[in-house]
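tool=predict chain=A
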Amino acid sequence: MAAFVRIKHRINMDDIQETLLGKTPPVRKNMGIGKIGSPEAVFVRQFRWTLKGTNLEEDFLKRVKFNFKSQRIKIEVYEVVIKNEDINIHTWLEKDLSKEQLVFTTYDGCGVPLYSYIFTDLDIQADTASFDYASSAESTRKITLKYGAATRKFHLNEKAVQKKRFDWKISVEGSEAKPVKINTRPVLNVEETEIDFLGNKMWIPGKADWDQMYIELPENSRCLLGQIMNNKSGNISLIMLDMNGNILETWMLSNVKIINMIDQKETASVTLSYNDVRYESAAKPEVSTVITKEATYVKNRKS
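tool=predict ok
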């Protein structure tokens, strides 16, 4: 007959830990993947690179290997014959490589450079090529170089390049134009109508509607909010400018109405609806284009 023993006290793991380690709690290591799992981490890929020099073209390189300890570079280059041109690797080897400079650059998936190495004081250590009647593989030149100096450059640590930016201003009934933020240019949507005839299907342009526009009036432009609300004709102009303040485009909206409005302390967000648009380009100021539902319909019918 089995004997049962009743346990009067439950085992507390905290008590055991305190007995073994003392009252001071241990420093626990985060067992996650850390920085390597950060969304900002970019892995350097073996196939996203370029190597080019003053006379060496980057298009013909097949493989490159580095030994930074012994200051050696091994490159494998395709021997490509192009009409009316010399084989690039042959011409490059005939140059004075002591004055040559090689730049090796890695890239992310979008072609943005990650880091570069600049190698100078080059000297050829080996230069081989092999041919074989039993192989149809492309011929390559295998070269080992020794460099005297290398400079490393991280592009992501540089100051971000300023992207092309366009500013917008809004004018109500010819009033002074004030800064405004918009999400997109006016967009015209044309529905398609399906027609069945003798077992065949065809589509013709149908109803055309302008998308609503979302604009944001900053603090120095909130004074225009009342003008938009009290605008009897419903005509406003949106003006696009470059970074130097030059006018690029002008969009004149007709029959503008406020659909939604959020009035805050510093900004006012407004959603507008409109019927027709007149567009003018500063590139050809003598030409102005009228864009209406009817004009778009006729244009699409002709096409």
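The longest strand covers residues 200-210. The first helix runs from residue 13 to 21.
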